[in-house]
Amino acid sequence: MSKYSIVLDENEIKLLAASLREIQQNILKQDSQTGKTRIWFQGEEAYFDVFFELQDHEITWFQFTFRGKSLSWDSKNPGWQTGTTNELKVGDVSFYAASKTIENDIEIDWEFVNLVKSIIQIRDQEEIFQKVLLLFNYY
User: Fold this and answer.
1) In this predicted model, what pLDDT tens digit does every residue of 34-79 receive, in sequence order?
2) Residue 21 in 3-state DSSP?
3) What is the pLDDT of residues 91-134, one digit of tens each?
4) How many domains does the chain have?
5) Is residue 45 in a domain?
6) Got the DSSP string for 71-114?
7) DSSP reduced 3-state for 34
8) Distance (Å, rounded) from C-alpha 33 to C-alpha 51?
9) Nearest Cα to Cα of residue 25 among 46, 11, 41, 49
10) Is residue 3 part of a domain?
């Protein structure tokens, strides 16, 4: 269950989706031995990231983080998992911007899942986002 709700209007959703920019591949560590590719999109708003891991052009892992909430999917254990990140915790002395931790929710936060889907749908002309949208049809 959600600890808090994120409520956005249609215009805010469009602006968030439009703000996502792909980060250069040379910044990400790639796993050439297994043939996995990692793709990272970062939004203009702080704490807004979308990560993909692909193998043979298929998504094997997906993670969306936004305002201290996360949604992830892993091909090893298909299905959605929502959670809370440590990014908004004040006074966390161990916090380092590149080391995000996620505490999984006991129950799926379907409100957040639907918010993520609405943001992703705005980018449905791009192949990677089309692939993620297919996951929403099955899980």
Assistant:
1) 778 899 999 999 889 999 999 999 999 999 999 999 999 999 998 9
2) strand
3) 655 555 556 788 889 999 999 999 999 999 999 999 999 999 99
4) 1
5) yes
6) EEEETTS-SEEEEEESTT-TT-TT--TT---EEEPSS--HHHHH
7) coil
8) 20
9) 41
10) no
CA distance between the termini of the chain: 17
Residue 65 contacts by C-beta under 8 Å, 6 or more apart in sequence?
47, 48, 49, 50, 71, 85, 87, 100, 102
Residue range of the domain that includes 77: 32-87+99-133
**Structure pTM?**
0.84
| Rounded Cα gap, residues 17 and 10, in angstroms | 11
Take residue 94 and report the two structure tokens written for it.
């161990």
Tell whether 8 is covered by a domain.
no
In a domain, residue 12? The reply is no
Other CB atoms within a 10 A radius of the CB of residue 43 amount to: 19
Count other Cβ atoms within 10 Å, centred on residue 40.
Answer: 16
